[in-house]
Structure formats: structure tokens, C-alpha cells
Amino acid sequence: MATEPADLTPALLGGVPLFDRTLYVGRPSMAPEAEVHARIQSALDRRWLTNDGPLVQELEHRCAERLQVPHCIAVANATLGLEVALRALGVQGEVLLPAFTFIGTAHAAQWLGLTPVFCDVRDADHGLDPAEVARRITPATGAILGVHLWGRACAVEALEDIARRHGIPLILDAAHAMGCGHAGRPLGSRGTVEVFSLHATKGLNSLEGGLVTTTDEALAQRIRLMRNFGIPDEDQVSCVGTNAKMNEFSAAVGLCNLDHFDDLCAHNHRLYEAYATALAGVPGLRLVAPAPGEAFSHHYIVLEVLPGAALDRDQLVRLLRAENVYARRYFRPGCHRGEPYRSRPGGPPSLPVTDRLSQTLLQLPSGRQLSPDEAQRLGQRLANWGRHGAEVAARLREAGAT
User: Fold this and answer.
1) CATH classification at residue 310
2) For position 291, what pLDDT does the model report?
3) Dihedral pair phi/psi, residue 59, rounded to 5°
4) DSSP strand E in 55-205: where?
5) What does the pLDDT read at residue 66?
6) Residue 77 sits in which domain range?
7) What integer pLDDT is reported at residue 85 of this predicted model?
8) First to last CA, the chain
9) Which residues contact 391 (CB under 8 A, 6 or more apart)?
10) N or C: which end of the chain has fewer CB within 10 A?
11) 243 φ, ψ to 5°?
């Protein structure tokens, strides 16, 4: 495919937008409506709409098989999944976690009265830095909470070793990680417990929902109990619990999307390759690549704007939105700079890698909303700006569009 001419005028400066519809990061990719309607109708026919219904049980079973883990518990959302897991493990005191993650990771601990202690991440995988975890552990540390960001496994072996030596659990936020793997196995069976998101913006979605996975049978039983108010059986309550159950409609959507999930991953892989081909060798821009040999869903397509680039990340976001591409700045700011954490005594900690990533990364659209040809066109538009960044930046200044 021919590349775009260097003098192409950005839509922000009066040119014609690249797309006549808006492309979004995280736009849901859904199974055919007829399939969804049929499964929902089956729940309506049974009048079994929640409380561990047959569709929830089927989703748990199929996901357990896919993730190669013995215990998979469906929950209403991943935030509740993290909260129930922390509570079921009896975590107290401080939780060490990365600041470069969605704010919900930190809020799950804070909501339970725990104290999030923010650590920096590694350049290599944008995951929790084990060296900093080791430095920050104190007698008050009750757990380590790692995040498989973008679906790339965090440093699980090193974090497992630290957790084992200190006798504390390792919880893994796997919200991004469905369809991803590490060391020849799907993510889902590492650490003490892992929590997946099935939110509408995820590669596999159930509208709202989540999965909690573990190899620990006793822990799985506690989580199942606590997601249902602590009620093990009719007329009996054995502990304090909450309502974290998934309903049958969400499970119906999740099952339908699971039927098509491998095809979606293959489509996203083609999108990634199209972006990568267009952006190869472009100065100042680098597509974040999966780790060699690791299974990856390519649901998250992350572009890094390197130091010295003529156009910074925020300028690219404004340029893209004028082209009807709603790129997103994940994650801006880091959790340590959001409330209530930035107002804690002493202010935000110094986390240089987190702060740099928060200013240099953006997410590009994926999913069935666009074709590989359209992804290549978008990549070529970015490549054009990268190669002629100084000229574009000058024109933005002249137009007062900076």
C-alpha cells in the first residue's frame, strides 16, 4: 500500500478527517446478536436469573478449562473480585502495588481499609518492579498486588519468591490478561489468586463481570462463600460476605463472546501487525511489543512517544481525535497522583518510570470496529506525523493549536 504524501494536512489544521466515523479505544466487540438473544432467552425461560445459575456455572467451567486452573469463580466485576480476594485472604495493613495501573486496583485495597503503598514499574514490561517491592516491604506489609499490564505478565517468578520468603500472599490483577500467557501456560494460575475483568471494554466481555482464579481449593471455597453474603446454604450464614455474584444475562453475553474470542484475538493480531508495519523505523514512535514467545491477545495496542520526538503524546492525541480516532492516555496520571492518594502526608512518592510512562503512552483502537487496512492507514498517518513532526509542530504553533 502506498504511503501518504508528506504534505497531507491534519484535520486539526483544516484537512479532511481520516475516518468518517469515530473509532474508540475499548469499544466492545460483540458476538452476533441472535446468539446473545438466544442465550438470554434461555435464562428467561428458566426464570433462573442469578444466584449461581447454569450459565454462570458454564462460564466458570469453560474459563477454568481455558485458563488451565482448577478453580474459577465468576463475580459481578473485577473490582469486587479483588476486594473479595483480599478479604478472603485476611489481608491487613499495607498492600504493595504499582502506581501505573487503573485506579480501581488501588481503590479495591483502600475501600477495605487497607493502605496502598505505591511502587514504581519496570521499563521492560511496565509491571511492578520486584527490586522496589523488596525495598518497600516492612512488618506492616500484608500483601503484594501485581498487575499484568496490557496482558504482558509482570515479573511473576520474582514476586512469587518475595511473597514466599515473607509469608504473604501475591494477588495478581489480570484485568487485561484474558488470552495471554507466560512460560507456556495461560495466565490465571500464578501467585495466590488472579482476578480477570470481563468489563465491556475488555477483549472478552460479559457487559460487566470478572473472574477470580486460584489453585487453592480452600481459598476458592471462601471466595465463593463471601461473594454470596457468606451464605453457604439456605437458612445459614457462616461469615461476613457481600453481593458479588454475576447474573445470568452477563454470563450469557460472556459465553457468546467466548465462542468468538479466538477469532477476535486473531483479528487483533492482524491489526497489531498492520500498525507495526506502518510504524516500523519511524523516529520518535515505538509500538509496545509483546514479550518474545509469550501468548498475547493484542487487545491493547500501545504506542510510546519517545524522548526527543517533535510531537509529544498529548499533541498526537489531539491530532488523532480530529481525525475521529479517540486515542486514550493510559494511565494518566499514575494512581499516586490521583485522590485520595496524592493528598496523603508527604505527597506522592517519587516514581520516575511511572511518571514518564504516564506522559508518553497512548492507546490505539483495536477490535472489530476497524479492519487491518484501516489500521494500516491510521499507522501511516501517525508515521507521516512522526517523519515530519517538526513541520507539523510548527504549523500547530502558528495555528494556536498546541
Assistant:
1) 3.90.1150.10
2) 87
3) -60, -45
4) 71-75, 94-98, 115-119, 141-147, 170-173, 181-182, 185-186, 193-197
5) 98
6) 33-259
7) 98
8) 31
9) none
10) N
11) -105, 95
Task: Return d(Cα 340, Cα 89) in angstroms, integer.
Answer: 25
Residue 336 included in any domain: no
43 and 23 in a single domain? The answer is no
What's the one-letter identity of residue 284? G
Closest of 120, 112, 111, 185 to residue 147, by C-alpha: 120
Q: Give the residue from 242, 259, 276 where a domain finishes.
A: 259
Query: Are 96 and 119 in a shared domain?
Result: yes
DSSP β-bridge partners for residue 243: 228
Distance from C-alpha of 56 to C-alpha of 248, rounded to nearest angstrom = 6
**Residue 116, C-beta contacts closer than 8 angstroms, at least 6 positions apart:** 94, 95, 97, 106, 109, 110, 335, 341
Query: In the chain, which residues have pLDDT < 50?
Result: 1-3, 5-7
Q: CB neighbours (10 Å) of residue 358?
A: 21
Q: Say if residues 352 and 120 touch (Cβ distance below 8 Å).
A: yes
Contact 315, 393 (CB under 8 A): yes
Assess if residue 196 is contained within a domain. yes
Find where cell 501456560 sits.
185
pTM above 0.90, yes or no: yes
* Helix, strand, coil share of the chain (percent; to 5): 40, 15, 45
| Number of domains present in the structure of the chain | 2
- State the sign of the Cα–Cα–Cα–Cα dihedral 133, 134, 135, 138: positive
As beta bridge partners, residue 236 has 233
- Residue whose cell numbers read 466458570: 60
**pLDDT given at position 235:** 87
Domain match, 234 and 293 both: no
